[in-house]
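Issue: ligand-bound run for calcium ion - logging full I/O for the record.

Environment: standard queue, default settings, no custom constraints.

Inputs:
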Amino acid sequence: MAKHETTEAIELSFDDFDEMNNPPVAQTDFDVLAEKALSRRGFLGGSVALGAAAFVMGTTSLTPFAVHAADSRLGFEAVATNTLDTVTVPKGYSWHIVAKWGQPLWSDAPAFDHATRGTGASQERAFGDNNDGMALFNDAGRNILVVNNEYVNRKIIYGGADGTGKPRNADDVRKGKAGHGISVVEIKQAGGQQGGGQWAIVKDSPVNRRITADTPMEITGPARGHDLLKTAADPSGTKSLGTWNNCGNGRTPWGTYLTCEENFNGYFSSSDPDYTVSPELSRYGVGLKDWGYAWATADERFDISKHPNEPNRAGYIVEVDPFDPSSTPKKRTALGRFKHENAELVLAKDGRVVVYLGDDERGEFLYRYVSNGVFSEGGDNGDLLDNGTLSVAKFDDGGRGQWIALTPASTGMASQAEISIHTRQAASAVGATTMDRPEWVAANPNSVEAYCCLTNNKNRGLKPNKGGDATPVGGPNPRKANKYGQIVRWRPDGADHGSDSFAWDLFVVAGNPTVHDDDRKGSTNVTAANMFNSPDGLAFDRNGLMWIQTDGNYSNEKDFAGQGNNQMLVADPATGEIRRFLVGPKQCEVTGFAWSVDGRTLFVGIQHPGERGDSHYPDGGDTTPRSTVIGITRDDGGRIG
Ligand code: FEO
Ligand code: CA
Ligand code: CA
Ligand code: CA
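Outputs:
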């Protein structure tokens, strides 16, 4: 989630207030939960019964570490936590920088200027800020890395000016908008694939492209042309400008990239302080004030008192063709409008396209889209993301769950178009399960199951979501005021992602066993050696190992003592074993994955190092910190997942 001063301040005071009034109870009903978890192990059956123990919470008799080290599939030495201002990887592995914020993509753009941190014009020709989700595409040997640039660190990008982090003029706003969106870059490995050298951006490649908050987009699917999408600039409701707050990503088997619009609300404001914000916009967090980006000061469409429908044109999954720099990205409204985290695409048994989608806000929902048509290799798959059924997850406490279709009949809403725009309201109407902030979903390539990081939720059991839905403790959200997060796993009935029912479990409940002895110590596969908080990024490698990235509290004290900087871990879904692979530099988040075609390089995103001012990663000395994509290789040239 994008951090910003306004809510940060509110969040802190809320926590202090809450801890004063609701001191944590020493003994919780955690043991009861563990018992329940034990009693519904049946669905897992024989061979993975040992793995089942991995996510039984609060027990000591059954532990996943019955798996002997010699049997482990995690073939590297664990990295200890640290608070260093650099990237740490296991012995026998190395990392290098592939791309950094502000790096020019064309030779007509200036080199990054550490003093001014660039202009609007230079940023439009350079790699964006805060890289997040990404994917690598291959076209006849050409490697095309497509990277989300989620948001900008205002205090850093405007830090060379007056230090307030506020844009001072229209060019600062232009620079801010250009720091957002997507960077499409060709990358090349020194010495070619056999050489195994470092990867770098190919300047002036014909595929290089910047997509920003001003790039023309086409709106497709059920909401295309709906009255709620019409604006003064686009009376047809079919064309919008730009994409921003692009968080996680997805990719399709037909070779396109999916970018996910998350905290789109934080960019809108009202020039009229008495303007009444509609409940529909409030549900999405749109209010009279933006989060400090000040885009409305230079671009009137971000002023909701003048253009109240503009926010309805953001919050979607956007499909991009990485091979054609002149193509128009498409906002796929059939996949719903909310604070999209990522888009995990798999195929149902019959070939329909299934997309799992999380809405990352406290007490919001987990969704699934299933296309009407089936994927055809080499055929026309152009409308698969326009015609289908969007459903929302409802979990029961007994380990079962269902996908509830969002239709006019089930929601009482007027049309599928309206459901595509006011998706949160539709999900509330069918009584979906309020979740602890669904972040990335990842599907196991070797087994019909999917996982979702529920990053944390300090409001769990204390406060309803923005729509007024209760957030009771239970089911996949088992802890009140959840500080550490958990990963939920589900297995669709009939081993088919197209099935409407599933069995679920918790794969891991994060915690700190060195500080707590109650439910905050985490599940039995969390130890002093591998602990972490706030799981966020999630992806499987081709071997079926699951990589977990964190976006959590890096204070390294109190509840988070010993957990150090944000990190990346690897888990074996079959045994529950989890081992730390990487620690990021100070004040960063680790987010985004891609693998080279040969599997010998893992690309990882280091987002917002020094977001609170304390880092000089990656350039060192007195330089300003910069988000980067790094490449990780094995010193022996072997595969890395
Ligand atoms: Fe952009 Fe929910 O992380
Ligand atoms: Ca982030
Ligand atoms: Ca997060
Ligand atoms: Ca995230």
